[in-house]
Design goal:
This protein has six helices and no strands. α2 crosses α6. 25% of the residues are buried.
Amino acid sequence: MDDFVNYVNRKWTETAPLVLAAFVLWRLNRIHPFINGNGRTARAACLFVICVSAGGWLPYAPILPEKIRANRGEYIEILQGVDKSAEAGNINLQPLVDFLQKLLQEQTAEA
């Protein structure tokens, strides 16, 4: 967890917010630091990164964690793909970034 937090802090200003949010979402799920609630915590942390980067809470509902959960099958498949890329030594977050961007665009349209 220390390495994870330090990495996020180091990359905060030099990484696009959605890319950093995708990393936070994937990495918290990957390291699985809690006995219970890893998925909820990862989705909340992802939203937190996006909101802090945007300067405040996003003004629409349902919020991103709910939208991720509603698209669980696609989400799990994407996380597994990122896991495979990490195991191969080249983390490819782009599918997860694209997924988050799609969900955020849907939210904006629903507002």
